[in-house]
Amino acid sequence: MAQAIAAARLGAGLTYRNPLVGAVIVKNDRVLAVGHHVGFGHAHAEVDAYQHVTHPEDVIGSTMYVTLEPCSHYGKTPPCAHQLVRWGVKEVYVAQQDPNPLVGGKGIAYLREHGVQIHVGLMETVARQLNRAYNFYYEYQRPLVTVKVAQSLDGKLSLNDGKRTYLTDMVANADVDHLRATQQAILIGSQTAIDDDPRLLVKERVAYPPVRVLLDRRNRVSHTSRLWQTNEAPLWHFVTGKESTKGIEDKDTRRTFKTSEWSIDKVIQTLSDQGVQSVLVEGGAHIQDAFLRVGLVDQLIIYQVPEIFGGRSLASFASRADSMRMRFTPVTIEKCGNATKMAFIRPSLAADWGLD
Amino acid sequence: MAQAIAAARLGAGLTYRNPLVGAVIVKNDRVLAVGHHVGFGHAHAEVDAYQHVTHPEDVIGSTMYVTLEPCSHYGKTPPCAHQLVRWGVKEVYVAQQDPNPLVGGKGIAYLREHGVQIHVGLMETVARQLNRAYNFYYEYQRPLVTVKVAQSLDGKLSLNDGKRTYLTDMVANADVDHLRATQQAILIGSQTAIDDDPRLLVKERVAYPPVRVLLDRRNRVSHTSRLWQTNEAPLWHFVTGKESTKGIEDKDTRRTFKTSEWSIDKVIQTLSDQGVQSVLVEGGAHIQDAFLRVGLVDQLIIYQVPEIFGGRSLASFASRADSMRMRFTPVTIEKCGNATKMAFIRPSLAADWGLD
């Protein structure tokens, strides 16, 4: 199973909304083949492994180790559970049952009904870490929300001189770029769009660039902004409007979402309805605080640079609301360019993430 | 010399304004004795080592390794340089010349004039770290200023509910107590004295508890405060007044410092005049920012707890002044109870601290 988990990771960045999955076919204590889900719309791990077997007839009576329950529905590829039976696989070890209700338990049931010996739960905690956002999305029915903060030692996001404040260096920026590349959506508020005029594009080559979500209730962001002028990634524009619209396609990759009032909850629900499994919230302070306030900070990643801004510089998570106290569980801390990178999660996720 | 440096550390917490010093007497490749400065007003390292020699006549023709230049002036003890000559020491290795102008170079000159072979600079960088504040005080003619901050992940010092916010747990508090115990003074502003009503006493048993400095320009702090009501450590009260007074002793350990206007520079100058070699600035936000603004943050120690306060909670180093950008050099980062403890220094100190 450890080999199947390692194989699964080869699909990182390519499977989009599909999970990373690895599979190993074993017979008489010999590995016949290793496979992984190679990309969205491409072969599933089980099929990929089967295709790597030298003599297909060897698979008859074999054992398969697979990190996620084989699928049982016709999607972009025929259901794996059916194939396994057809190939004559005798025994299957599954690390994790699929949280997707389309599959959940049905693949396992199909295999059992067709006389395959099946064992569920081997190395489950490790295997689950392959697909944190995927699992979260199906288990909590909403995207995993990561808030990213780049701040000074005194927790400040920017000076108060009206210009964009650059905090992190090239090395840390590359790390942020990679963080973005692993997300299905990146969200900013209108003030950040106006002040910083970012593109929110990912430099890393990715098969599916994250959707850029602009929360711009009062429709303040200029169409000459760089966000608007670039179309290398989708731009979803959330504005307040009388009639409700869900994703009118303005032009190419641009869609407008309208409703009479956008709360943070409603924005996340809309992204959820669109199938978005992970969102990176990039700021500014008011947006950070708004997510905190409704309990929608699942993961918090701070890049802290060794400077003090002092005075009336803008603090992270600052707003006019009452202060509150939200505890997080530390996950990692590491040097990252000129910054110290610290990752935290909501304490209730510690068990899911294998950290308790 | 490494052995002398290790010996020097045995005096930690006992030498007060005197430096930590270690000495080793060697003859024919054998260690005759090891000594250290055992405490303020007690034997210097050289004398302590001599007292540990079994046969004093063995010292004739010996070599001494001493971490700091032997003294040449009559203070609380007779000058060591004179003693070394009298004992017949033939050769002396000194790690660091004494930065104290009363001694600086004179001990070395005395030994050289009296026919002792002398070598200066062996393991100097390491030896200098024994006495960072002592060296700083004589080299920069003012105390080493350490600003200590306990804050949330978003850089907040306290909630805005008017009550004291406790951030750090027992383990981190014990570390803060030890930090205080290594300082000659602890400084707070009147607002912190009023809001938190701290005692600023050190729980760790120390020979010389740090002076508690209360910067209370408008004389706002009540005499019923815990700071006022405790006398286990000196309390120096800095208030604005028409006549200037330097340390009128009110009662036991309490002194009042008055002048027409107290700037941060003037406060530090006054502490310097009083011989204070190290000051720990404990807050609040305005005081932190005031020290930052005049460039008087030599060392910065942050205890950051894994919580977010958000909203209008009070940010560290916050004031109404313009924001600025002050860079620091990271020194250490470690887990400390519920906090991450991070130490930084002014970049120009990196060489002095052996960090470049």
From TrEMBL, chains A, B:
It comes from Furfurilactobacillus rossiae DSM 15814. Pathway: Cofactor biosynthesis; riboflavin biosynthesis; 5-amino-6-(D-ribitylamino)uracil from GTP: step 2/4; Cofactor biosynthesis; riboflavin biosynthesis; 5-amino-6-(D-ribitylamino)uracil from GTP: step 3/4. Binds 1 zinc ion. This is Riboflavin biosynthesis protein RibD. Keywords: Hydrolase, Metal-binding, Multifunctional enzyme, NADP, Oxidoreductase, Riboflavin biosynthesis, Zinc. GO terms for biological process: riboflavin biosynthetic process. Residues 1-110 form the CMP/dCMP-type deaminase domain. In the N-terminal section; belongs to the cytidine and deoxycytidylate deaminase family. In the C-terminal section; belongs to the HTP reductase family. The keyword Zinc applies. The active site is at E46. One of its GO terms (molecular function) is diaminohydroxyphosphoribosylaminopyrimidine deaminase activity. Substrate binds at R180, L200, E282.
